[in-house]
Each structure stands twice: as C-alpha cells, then as structure tokens.
Amino acid sequence: MSPKATCAPDDLRTSRDAVTLSRFPPTLCSPVKEAGDASGPSNENLPLKPLTAVGGKSSSVKHPKSRCEQSGQRGRRRMKANDRERLRMHNLNSALDALRSILPALPEDAKLTKIETLRFARNYIWALTETLRMADQHGHTPDYLASDLSSPASVFSAEWDSVSPAEAGYGTTDQSISYKSVDEASCKLFTRDESSAFPVTFYFKCGESDLRNTWHY
DNA sequence: TAGGCCATCTGGTCCT
DNA sequence: AGGACCAGATGGCCTA
C-alpha cells in the first residue's frame, strides 16, 4: 500500500515512544456507548474478549495520558475508528474460526495459526477436488457429489457423511484424518465398495509448499 | 532468551 | 465526511 507518512501534525505525530505511551485499555478511553455504536448489525453476539492492555494482553501497564484522552472531534473520531477496527478484526477472527471448524479436526491443543488455517484450507479443498476427480474417473461418483468438479467451493466436507449408502446407491464414503504434525497430516478416504479405487490417502501440508507440487496418494 | 503469534492502535488511502 | 481496508508498529504471552 502507501508508504507511511512521516509528516503528521505535531499533535498526532507518532514516534515509537508516543505510540507506546498511548496504549492502554480501550475501556479507559472509549465510552461504552461508543464501542457499542461502532458495531455493525452483526456484532451483538460477537464474544468480545476482555479488553486488555493496548498492544498486549495484560492490563498491568501504566496508562499515561494518551491520544485517546484528547478532547475534541479528532480524538473522538480516532476512538471510533479504533472501535471499528477492533470489531473488524474480531469479525475476521470469527471467520477464521468458522473455517477451522469445518477443516478436519486437529488433535487437542493443536489449533492452527491463521496462516496455517488458510494454507490448510486451500490444500484440503484441492485434495477433496482431486478425490472427486478420481472417483469420477473410476465411475464411483455418487450423484450427490457429481457436481461441477471445476468448482471446489461447491463441495462441503460434511456431505461425505450426510448421505446413507442406500440413498447414494454406493458404498459409504468416509474419511479419517491422522496427523504427523501440525504441519503435515494425512487424510484417508475410502469406501466399503471393494471394487472402488479407494482407499486413497492424501497428505496435506499446512506449510508454505504448494500441495499440488508435493501431494501423493 | 529469542522468535513466533497475536491483539491493538494508528495514519494513509480509497470508496460511498 | 465518514467508514472500510490496509500495513506498520508495538508490547504481551508462550514455547523451544
């Protein structure tokens, strides 16, 4: 984006020290009403974390006079902007949590980081798409999965378990996940149909590498 | 203790 | 004018 400006007005100029000294819990500088007003229509049930020290998670920092305490329109605008930004990031984190929830479950205490979640999701979607493609090649694509294979977004993992064998007319398609580490996991997809091309095991990666260059089964 | 991750503040830019 | 989005900066927490 744009380079940072270095010519802010004196009253708002941000030296490192100034920024540091300005950080303290929003509760101390943001009227409750304003924090609520900053929310959009979908924020009421957003579980806001306890307000913490600015720039950190502890409340043990001192709270010297900061920009937040400035009076005047500019200070109020900045406070409202901070509230909106905080809310925006909370919404972003909620979306990431929702994404984590539909990815194969991780072992306890192995929550994916943000970047790992995005990379894992990308590779997982790709692997599922490959699975469908292979099943299609072997003539084992149930109707309910025979959607447009070029559109991975139309495939939801929940669907694997959502149709009974009788409904689908095929062996049950299922998956089991095992993790070698947070960075690498294998996903075994199989059916009970003996003649099927399954089981197939995909190796997922959460790291930087492109799954399409490294995957195997 | 260093490094990774995270939440938050902040100012700039773009859009409505 | 105000809101959304973005990236830089900063400090706290956690772990190897």
Automatic annotation (TrEMBL):
GO terms for molecular function: DNA-binding transcription factor activity, RNA polymerase II-specific; E-box binding; protein dimerization activity. SUPFAM superfamilies: HLH, helix-loop-helix DNA-binding domain. Residues 76-128 form the BHLH domain. Keywords: Developmental protein, Differentiation, DNA-binding, Neurogenesis, Nucleus, Transcription, Transcription regulation. One of its GO terms (cellular component) is nucleus. The keyword Electron transport does not apply. Pfam families: HLH (PF00010). Efficient DNA binding requires dimerization with another bHLH protein. This is BHLH domain-containing protein. It comes from Amphiprion ocellaris (Clown anemonefish). The gene is NEUROG3.
